[in-house]
Design brief:
This protein is an alpha/beta fold. The protein is built from 13 helices and 12 strands. Helix 6 links the parallel strand 9 and strand 10. The longest helix has 21 residues. The radius of gyration is 25 Å and the shape is globular.
Length: 470
């Protein structure tokens, strides 16, 4: 990893862009009008400017900020073809009595919201620029922006519920702005971003469609702010990691844009490895193996391990990791051929590592899914643990459920992030839109097309998405 980003991990644990713009970058003239009238007021490029300062490692860094939107289109868009079609349709309308005829919906397009920070006084050619985004799919990027790497950070209770407003916003000593200019991007349909047009869902909500939209955005951003020759990085979290894999491949292969680095946080590149629902694909046991140390760390944190709790977490986890890839993996590989005695022995061993009853583990065929673990670990006290951050816990909706129905992290932190971002966007960034802000949109995930066309293939594959080839 480039030394520029060594502080990234520490910033996340502690959290519980051309420098001085070129004359053209902040010129008063705005992008020209679109080739056709926008379908509503959201679909015009916008930008508001502001300035600020952040102190990192005891050094104050002055920056210029830009909050705005760029408009992108789905795959196959050709602006010259649309202009010709629109002119033809207009001529038809003029020839008809009684005014305009009924028209089809316009082609799909997305207005993508971003917040960019540029260190003042640094030359663009020498200054890295990093594009950051959360995942979901269906999440805005308020979390990375206001919780980890932006110049300002929301004050929250570390690992617990943050009381109601007013919420504090403070200098972020772990911001990456000392090392790179930053661009935080809200995916189409989330945050202040919007989608519209015919078949807008199919145009933007899918593995390949989403990456194409981000590729169009990045190219437009590099042009608008004259950053084509800057060192470039991608930083994706959760679903943002498969987005990064597909995105960096498309940019390099289709657009001849090489990136200097890609950073993956909480990665899921092969969806066969997800601990959320692996039983939907029987015979794929690797998720249980890779998730075991995380379960063990959670049980250790909540003091749910039987017997004496290990004094130190790291040695305990090394033991669990060794067990996971040796004895546990061998037992799972035997499938239905595993004898009863060995099964009971393994269940007991697992109980000692993850804190669930041995008989429950045995009845689950030694395979505990993520939702099961979150529901069952604190079930004796009527609570569930978090998914995104398993330190969090909250009341179970139904203690008899097999899997948890919500993530306690959401009610603990969401209000602080959303409320504080509204205030920050309005007061500091000078961004005062009429539209609503959507921190996350469940509808997107339910409509997401997880099929992917790997490099070298002609069609999308009807298998669990795997972007490792990208």
């Amino acid at each position: 990893m480039n030394f520029v980003y060594r502080r990234a991990a520490a910033a996340l644990l502690g959290a519980s862009v051309l420098a001085l713009f070129s004359p053209s970058a902040f010129a008063d003239d705005k992008p020209g009008p679109s080739a056709r009238p926008a379908p509503d007021r959201y679909f015009e490029p916008e930008e508001v400017r502001s300035a600020g300062s952040v102190t990192v490692d005891g050094k104050a860094i002055a920056y210029d900020a830009a909050a705005g939107t760029l408009v992108v289109h789905g795959a196959g868009w050709n602006d010259s073809e649309w202009r010709e079609a629109a002119a033809t349709e207009s001529d038809k309308d003029k020839s008809k009595d009684g005014g305009a005829a009924d028209k089809e919906l316009p082609p799909p397009e997305a207005s993508i919201f971003y917040t960019a920070y540029f260190k003042r006084g640094a030359a663009a050619a020498d200054r890295p620029i990093t594009f950051l985004y959360n995942g979901g799919p269906g999440s805005s990027t308020v979390w990375l922006h206001m919780g980890a790497f932006g110049p300002r950070k929301v004050v929250t209770t570390n690992g617990g519920y943050t009381p109601a407003a007013p919420y504090g916003i403070v200098n972020n000593t772990n911001s990456l702005l000392d090392a790179s200019d930053l661009v935080f991007i809200d995916a189409p349909g989330t945050g202040y971003s919007r989608v519209a047009g015919k078949d807008k869902d199919k145009a933007f909500w899918g593995v390949d469609e989403d990456a194409h939209a981000f590729a169009q955005f990045i190219k437009a951003f590099l042009t608008k702010y004259d950053r084509w020759n800057s060192p470039k990085y991608l930083f994706g979290e959760s679903y943002g990691t498969p987005r990064s894999a597909v995105l960096v491949d498309e940019l390099a292969r289709d657009d001849s844009i090489d990136f200097n680095g890609v950073m993956l946080l909480s990665q899921i590149l092969n969806f066969d490895l997800s601990i959320d629902g692996p039983k939907l694909n029987p015979g794929t046991d690797l998720p249980y193996i890779t998730a075991l140390p995380s379960m063990a760390a959670t049980a250790w944190y909540h003091n749910r391990l039987p017997g004496a709790r290990p004094a130190e977490l790291e040695p305990f986890l090394r033991e669990v990791e060794h067990f996971a890839v040796t004895d546990y993996a061998a037992a799972l590989a035997q499938g239905a051929g595993l004898d009863a005695a060995t099964k009971q022995t393994m269940a007991g061993k697992l109980a000692g590592y993850i804190g669930l009853p041995a008989d429950y583990i045995a009845r689950s065929d030694l395979r505990i899914e993520g939702g099961q673990f979150e529901q069952q670990l604190l079930n004796p006290v009527g609570e569930v643990t978090g998914r995104l951050d398993s330190r969090f816990h909250g009341p179970a909706i139904d203690v008899l459920d097999k899997e948890t129905q919500y993530d306690p992290l959401d009610p603990a932190l969401a209000s602080a992030f959303v409320s504080a971002f509204h205030a920050y966007a309005s007061q500091d960034l000078k961004w005062k839109p009429e539209r609503a802000f959507y921190p996350s949109v469940d509808e997107i995930g339910s409509k997401w097309d997880l099929r992917h066309k790997p490099p070298g293939q002609t069609d999308k594959q009807y298998i669990a998405a795997n972007v490792l080839p990208d």
